[in-house]
Write a structure and sequence with these properties.
The complex is a heterodimer of chains A (376) and B (271). Chain A is an alpha/beta fold. Helices cover 38% and strands 22% of the residues of chain A. Chain A is built from 13 helices and 16 strands. Chain B is α/β, with parallel strands linked by helices and 271 residues long. In chain B, helix 6 links the parallel strand 5 and strand 6. Chain B is globular and about 60 Å long. The chains are: A alpha/beta (376), B alpha/beta (271). Chains A and B meet through strand 2, helix 3, helix 4 and strand 10 of A and strand 2, helix 2, helix 4 and helix 10 of B. Strand 10 of chain A pairs parallel with strand 2 of chain B, so a sheet runs across the interface.
Chain lengths: 376, 271
C-alpha cells in the first residue's frame, strides 16, 4: 500500500522542530527565549526518541558553542533564538564561519532593539544576520513565510549547511513562528536530504581547509583524521598562520563558496509576476499580507505581482534586477524602518521606482495598507 | 630512560609560543605522560581550549584539537561529548579564560557533572595580552591594569569548582611535575566532571612586577607555598597562612554522570 502523507495542524515553531528531525538533526542546544522556545520544547521531547540529544545551556553563547561542538563530532545540529539571543550568538557564529562548521541557527524575529517586544513580530534583524559578526564572512539566510515553509526551509537550511560547510540562518518571525496551519508532512525521500561529505583519503593527505576546492571535505572528531580547528586565520591543515598568502586565500574562499553558488542557494517565489507592472517585494509574515494585496489589486485591474524571497542572503539581486528593467515600480514591504529596501534599491540600480511601506509598532502590515502603497 | 614525547607532538608545530621560563611546557609534558598512561588512543581523544597562552597548547598535540573562542571551551566540549560520548575530552584554559569570561560555562559544566577533565592553568595574570589582572591575581599584586595593586579579592578556583558541583577537584603546581602527572591520571580516571588547577608562573607578565624576577624564583615560590592535603591536616591555621593545598581536594563518586543519566532517563537510543 502506498504511504500517505500525514496531515498535521502545526505551529510554525513546531514545524521547524519536525523539519529538523526530517533533515536528520541529532543535536539541539538552546536557551529559552520568546518567541522561539517551542522549538526547544519539542526537541527536548523528540530528540532522544530519534537518536539525538538535547541540552538547555547556561546562556545563548554556550548554546551556539555546543552546537558547533556537536557538529564537529559529526552530528547535524540546531539552535533557535530571537534577537537578543542572536546578538549573543554572533561571537560563535563567526567561529562557525571561520572554522567552517555546518549548523542551523533559527532566529524567530521579534520587534525592536534590545529586549524590544518579545511577543510582537519584527523583520529588522536582516542586516544583523548578514553583518552582525565581525570581519568579512559569508552568509546564507532563509526566510520562510508559511508553516509548511518552516518545515521545508529548515530541511533546506540543513542541506545548505552541510553542502557549503557553514552555519545557515533561518530568519522567521513571531507571526510565522506562532501561527498554526495544516501541513502535509513530506514522506521520507520526498524532500532531498544532503549528508556531509567526509574524507576518505589517506590520513596524511587530508587537508581540512584545502584552498584548492571551494568546500573541503569535513572529518568528524573521532573518525581518525586528527586535525586542528581554530578561529584564527589558519593554513590548509587548520594551524594558525601569519602568512599573508594563506590568510588571503582562506578568507576569499569563505566568501566565494557562497558567491559562486548563487543559483543553488537563492530561491524566490514569483507570484503573479509574469505580466506584472507593479512588483511587491516582501518576505516572512509581510509576504502573506502582500499576497492578499496582490489578489485584491488584481480584482481591481491593477497588474501587481509578489516577489517573495525564500533566501534573503545572498540577496536576490539578479531577480530584482530583472524586474527592475521591466516593471513600473517595486514596493518593498517590511517590518523594519528600512533594511531590505536599501538592498532592493541597490539591486534595482535606479531602473524603476522604489516604494516603501513599513511598520515598527509591533503590529503586522495589513493588505489594505499595502494596496494603498502600490496604488499611491 | 627519559620519556619520549614525540609520539604525541605534531611534527613541525614546535617551537611553542610560550616565553622562556613559562611553566606551561612542564604541564603539557605531565599531561602527555598521563594520557599515555591512560592508554587513550589519539583518535578518541579531544583536547579543547579557549583563548590565551595556555589555550595554544592543543595545536602542538596530535589529537582531535579544538581552539575555540575566549572562555568557551567547556561549552564546545559539552556539545562534542553529547554528540559522541565515546570521546575522551580534556578542556583547558587559563585563569582568565576559565574563571572570568568563561566563568559561567565553568560553573555550569561542574554542576552538570558531564564526563570530561577541565585543566585550569593558573598563572594569576592575562599573559598573552601583556599582564593585566585576572580573577586570580592576589590582592595587592601589580598588573599592567592594576598599577596601584590588585583591588579585587581573588577566586579560589578549586573551592569554586566544589561549590558548583564538580565531583573531582585537585590542585598541583608546575614545580611538582610528577605529582601533577599522578593527579591528571586520577582526574582522567574519574567518571564525571573533574577539575585540576595547576599553579604556574608567568615570569614575563606577573613575576617581573611582583618581586619574582626569575623563572626559578617562581618555581621555588610554588615549592615553598604548596602544602599537600595530608600535611595540611596536621598544620595550624597560622602555619597555613599564605599557603595553598595540593593533591586531591574533593572526590565524590555518588553523583550521576550527565550523559549516562540523560540516556537512561530519556530512553535515548541510537537510530
Amino acid at each position: 500500500m502506498e504511504k500517505k502523507r500525514e496531515r498535521k495542524f502545526l505551529q510554525g515553531n513546531d514545524a521547524v522542530a519536525l523539519g529538523a528531525l526530517y533533515a536528520g538533526c541529532k543535536f539541539y542546544a538552546g536557551y529559552p527565549i520568546t518567541p522561539s522556545t517551542e522549538v526547544a520544547e519539542r526537541l527536548a521531547a523528540w530528540l532522544p526518541k530519534n537518536g539525538g540529544r538535547f541540552i538547555q545551556m547556561e546562556d545563548e553563547i554556550s548554546a551556539m558553542a555546543a552546537v558547533i561542538g556537536a557538529s564537529l563530532a559529526g552530528k547535524k545540529s540546531l539552535t533557535a533564538t530571537s534577537g537578543p539571543g542572536m546578538s549573543l550568538k554572533l561571537e560563535n557564529l563567526g567561529y562557525g564561519y571561520m572554522a567552517e562548521v555546518p549548523c542551523v541557527v533559527l532566529n524567530v524575529m521579534r520587534g525592536g532593539p534590545s529586549t524590544g517586544t518579545p511577543t510582537g513580530p519584527g523583520q529588522a534583524d536582516i542586516m544583523q544576520a548578514r553583518w552582525g559578526t565581525h570581519g568579512d564572512h559569508p552568509c546564507i539566510a532563509l526566510t520562510p513565510s508559511t508553516v509548511y515553509e518552516q518545515f521545508s526551509q529548515t530541511v533546506r537550511a540543513f542541506n545548505l549547511a552541510e553542502k557549503y560547510r557553514m552555519p545557515v540562518i533561518i530568519l522567521s518571525d513571531e507571526i510565522i513562528g506562532h501561527m498554526r496551519e495544516a501541513i502535509e508532512v513530506p514522506l521520507e525521500g520526498e524532500l532531498e536530504v544532503i549528508e556531509r561529505e567526509k574524507p576518505a583519503c589517506a590520513i596524511d593527505e587530508y587537508k581540512p581547509y584545502d584552498n584548492s576546492v571551494l568546500v573541503p571535505k569535513m572529518a568528524s572528531f573521532g573518525q581518525g583524521y586528527r586535525y586542528h580547528v581554530t578561529g584564527l586565520n589558519h593554513d590548509e591543515y587548520g594551524f594558525p598562520t601569519n602568512s599573508a598568502k594563506l590568510i588571503g586565500l582562506q578568507e576569499e574562499r569563505l566568501i566565494k563558496k557562497v558567491e559562486e553558488n548563487y543559483d543553488d542557494i537563492v530561491q524566490v517565489e514569483h507570484f503573479m509576476c509574469e505580466d506584472a507592472e507593479h512588483i511587491i517585494f516582501a518576505f516572512g509574515s509581510s509576504a502573506r499580507a502582500s499576497k492578499d494585496a496582490v489578489l485584491n489589486l488584481r480584482k481591481k485591474g491593477v497588474k501587481a505581482g509578489l516577489l517573495k524571497p525564500l533566501t534573503i542572503w545572498p540577496f536576490p539581486d539578479r531577480e530584482i534586477s530583472e524586474y527592475a528593467s521591466k516593471v513600473k515600480d517595486i514596493t518593498v514591504v517590511e517590518l523594519s524602518v528600512g533594511q531590505s529596501v536599501r538592498e532592493v534599491s541597490r539591486a534595482a540600480g535606479g531602473r524603476c521606482n522604489i516604494k516603501h511601506i513599513y511598520k515598527v509598532d509591533s503590529k503586522p502590515i495589513s493588505p489594505v495598507d499595502i494596496e494603498k502603497a502600490v496604488e499611491g | 630512560m627519559a620519556y619520549n614525547y614525540e609520539k604525541y607532538i605534531r611534527k613541525g608545530r614546535l617551537p611553542h609560543i610560550w616565553c622562556p621560563g613559562c611553566g606551561y611546557g612542564i604541564i603539557m609534558k605531565s599531561m602527555i605522560r598521563a594520557i599515555d598512561a591512560m592508554g587513550w588512543s589519539k583518535d578518541e581523544t579531544v583536547i579543547a581550549s579557549g583563548i590565551g597562552c595556555a589555550s595554544r597548547l592543543p595545536g602542538y598535540l596530535d589529537f582531535n584539537t579544538l581552539h575555540t573562542t575566549h572562555g568557551r571551551s567547556l561549552a564546545f566540549a559539552t556539545g562534542i561529548k553529547l554528540a559522541n560520548p565515546e570521546l575522551k575530552i580534556v578542556a583547558l584554559g587559563g585563569d582568565g579564560d576559565m574563571s572570568a569570561i568563561g566563568g559561567n560555562h565553568f560553573i555550569h559544566a561542574c554542576r552538570r557533572n558531564i564526563d570530561m577533565t577541565v585543566i585550569v592553568f593558573n598563572n594569576n595574570i592575562y599573559g598573552m595580552t601583556g599582564g593585566q589582572y585576572s580573577p586570580t591575581t592576589p590582592l595587592g599584586a601589580k598588573a599592567t591594569t592594576a598599577p596601584y595593586g590588585m583591588l579585587e579579592p581573588d577566586f579560589d578556583i578549586c573551592k569554586l569548582a566544589v561549590a558548583a558541583g564538580a565531583t573531582f577537584v585537585g590542585r598541583s603546581t608546575s614545580y611538582h611535575a610528577l605529582p601533577m602527572e599522578k593527579l591528571f591520571k586520577e582526574a582522567f580516571s574519574h567518571k564525571g566532571l573533574s577539575v585540576v588547577e595547576i599553579i604556574a608562573g608567568c615570569p614575563t607578565g606577573f613575576g617581573r612586577k611582583n618581586n619574582q624576577k626569575t623563572p626559578t624564583s617562581m618555581l621555588l615560590w610554588q615549592k615553598d607555598h604548596a602544602v599537600t592535603k595530608q600535611m595540611a591536616e596536621k598544620m595550624s591555621a597560622e602555619e597555613l597562612e599564605g599557603k595553598f593545598i595540593t593533591g586531591v581536594l574533593y572526590h565524590d563518586t555518588s553523583k550521576k554522570e550527565y550523559v549516562e543519566n540523560y540516556d537512561a532517563v530519556t530512553g535515548f537510543s541510537e537510530k
